[in-house]
Amino acid sequence: MSIHLIKPSNRKTTAPKTLVSRDCGPAGCEIDWLTSRRVAADDDIEAFTSFSLEQGWGDGLPLIPPTDARVRMILSENDRYPDELIARMPDSSECTVEKIVINAVMAGAPADSLELIIAAIEAIAEPDFELYGVNATTAPVYPGFIVNGPIRDALHIPYSDGCAGGVATRANAIGRAIRLIMRNVAGQVAGVTTQTTFGSPGRLGGLLMGEWEEKSPWAPLAERRAGIVGNAVTAFSTMGTMNILDTTSSGAHAFLEMIGKSVSYAGANCYSPSMEYAEMTIGINPICADIIAKELPTIEDVQEILWNCAAVPADWFQALHRDQLAAQGRIRSDGRVYATPEPKDMILFVCGGLGGLHALGLHSFGSSLAQTRQIATATPASAVQAAE
């Protein structure tokens, strides 16, 4: 079974158009460009947070009131029409630039993160990402994001120590802004529109990290996936983070065997008879990546060995599970069930600190396929006018 026989994979993305400033700034314009319903509310953060929970807008953490001036300030520092439609959410609601900015203001996201947030929303709105399933399922899944390019440093997106959470940076507010969009625009409400059994901390603050390209012995993830050089974001679905520790192995094959066997467990979604295929996203520590690359300089060889190790014997499963997996053709001739259809579906990137030999397992929801999008670079209106 192969993902490319089920759904298209490795889509190429076109370069985004040149953007020109189209907002009048925080003072506003003669014509009111903002179309959202105005609500009278206290500008005090504590009072507004309580009010937001009453209205069903909040996530329980403090929110910054999205006043006209604050919304216009972000628009004035970027180059988008407020009413530009970025995506349609699974419930058919329209996610416009204005809606994105409102949630970015409430989350405390910096103004220069708007294009990253837009690219992230475009990525998860791709049909192959299957956002409807990610949002509504009983699983704890949520979208995670890996960022490539200089924008990592510009926005202080962590990619070394603590990259999966815990670093004090305003980039945390970017992930939270996306989560608020999922709540307030896409309408994801636990027990109502999503039947998630346990949920996840990632459904509150999100997961946004960079790839440590400078420490990677292989090409950056976005370049390998979509031929994008520079600023890009890859969206993938994840059930949470799994730490894999291996301080004993000393060679490439040994490290990959430990990683592959660690991410392979019978209850993972990728082995569920209800999921015909899946991907697996794995972060490799830079120290470990160097050791692996000395023996396996080609990333495809790394993926193949890891894929072979991320398989479990069919007799690990109960008879009913085996019957269902066999009916899907999931049990291979060697009597094993593989985590993904092909080696290419093991999505690898380099990240993490240099303090120890760890890997990061990010299990997929299953039928959600990762998407990579280029991040647009805004062109100030003054620069365009000067060129004219």
Provide the fold topology:
Layout lengths: L2 H4 L12 E2 L24 H11 L12 H9 L8 E4 L5 E3 H11 L6 H11 L6 H6 L5 E7 L2 H4 L16 H14 L17 H4 L1 E4 L10 H6 L5 E7 L3 E4 L6 H12 L16 E5 L1 H10 L3 H11 L1 E3 L5 H9 L8 E3 L7 E5 L7 E6 L7 E4 L3 E2 L1 H7 L1
Parallel strand pairs: 1-14, 4-5, 8-11
Antiparallel strand pairs: 2-3, 4-6, 6-13, 7-12, 8-12, 9-10
Summarize the structure in short.
By secondary structure, this protein is an alpha/beta fold. It has helices at 3-6, 45-55, 68-76, 97-107, 114-124, 131-136, 151-154, 171-184, 202-205, 221-226, 252-263, 286-295, 299-309, 319-327, 381-387, and strands at residues 19-20, 85-88, 94-96, 142-148, 207-210, 232-238, 242-245, 280-284, 311-313, 336-338, 346-350, 358-363, 371-374, 378-379.
Please supply descriptive tags for the structure shown above.
single chain; 388 residues; alpha/beta; 14 strands; 33% helix; 15% strand; globular
Report on this structure.
This protein is an alpha/beta fold. The protein has 15 helices and 14 strands. The protein has helices spanning 3-6, 45-55, 68-76, 97-107, 114-124, 131-136, 151-154, 171-184, 202-205, 221-226, 252-263, 286-295, 299-309, 319-327, 381-387; strands at residues 19-20, 85-88, 94-96, 142-148, 207-210, 232-238, 242-245, 280-284, 311-313, 336-338, 346-350, 358-363, 371-374, 378-379. The strands form five sheets. The chain has a four-stranded mixed β-sheet with strand order 5-4-6-13. Strands 7-12-8-11 form a four-stranded mixed β-sheet. Helix 11 crosses helix 12 (286-295). The longest helix is centred in the middle third of the chain and has 14 residues, at 171-184. The protein is globular, with a radius of gyration of 22 Å. Mean pLDDT is 87; it is low at 1-15.
